[in-house]
Amino acid sequence: PWGTRNHIIQFDGHFIELIGAGDAATTKARPYFADRLLAYLAQRQGMAMLALTSVDAAADASAFAEARISAGPMFAFSRQGAGADGTAREVAFDLSFATSPLLNAASFFTCHHRHPENFWASDRQVHPNGARAISSVIMIGADPADHAEFLSNVTGQREMLATSFGLDLQLGTAHLEVMSQPAWHFASGLTARAEPARIVGLRLVVPDLPALAARLTQQHIPFTRRDNRLVIAPEAAFGLALLFEAA
């Protein structure tokens, strides 16, 4: 009803959501995330938001308020989706948002799936390029340590690894990495300004890098080789770098 449109790329326990503005610009009543999305798209393409798994979004909202990082009350909605077999199924979500003045170019929220059996489907997690999982979300900032307190509060992760690259938070089966600009260049071969701090890339796991390289070449998708990974620059992927690494 607020005019956004989406497509989902599923993995086992993770997903990439491609969101377009649709006719949201003419919709008067919009939830927080739609407003944030439109503001982001007015400046750039890329990864506007990071969703974290939740089992109790209301408790998350309370925790965010207590930590003074809340971006408003919990938001709940549902809609009719199509199951893998084409039948109509209800999907419903509870969202709680957090914000940091140091991260105006990235939004964070927790998401509780009230009908997960209607959302996840194993046959939708098999992809022609062989990608099996998201192993890491990569954020850059001038000083990764500046974001430690906020990320600890929003993820609930009280321990994080400090590396020569920056910060590394274990989130279930994936990671959130926070790098400086030089560390990002070393990892990807790409150059990006460290400010504004934002999410710049994903690490994805594939079983066969040579096969993926052949597929990308066949489909005229530009990439570079960087150590043991294939890198698609953000200019070729709507503002988000994709780092494919061997399983």
SSE blueprint:
Elements: E1 5-10, E2 15-20, H1 32-41, E3 49-53, H2 57-66, E4 75-82, E5 88-98, E6 107-113, H3 116-119, E7 133-140, H4 148-155, E8 161-162, E9 166-171, E10 174-179, H5 181-188, E11 198-206, H6 209-218, E12 224-226, E13 229-232, E14 241-246
Parallel strand pairs: 3-6, 7-10, 11-14
Antiparallel strand pairs: 1-2, 4-5, 5-6, 7-11, 8-9, 9-10, 12-13, 13-14
Description:
The protein is an alpha+beta fold and 247 residues long. The protein contains 6 helices and 14 strands. It has helices at 32-41, 57-66, 116-119, 148-155, 181-188, 209-218; strands at residues 5-10, 15-20, 49-53, 75-82, 88-98, 107-113, 133-140, 161-162, 166-171, 174-179, 198-206, 224-226, 229-232, 241-246. The strands form 3 sheets. An 8-stranded mixed sheet has the order 8-9-10-7-11-14-13-12. It has a 4-stranded mixed sheet with strand order 3-6-5-4. Strands 1-2 form a two-stranded antiparallel ribbon. A hairpin with a 4-residue loop joins strand 1 (5-10) and strand 2 (15-20). The protein starts with a strand and ends with a strand. 26% of the residues are buried. The mean pLDDT is 93.
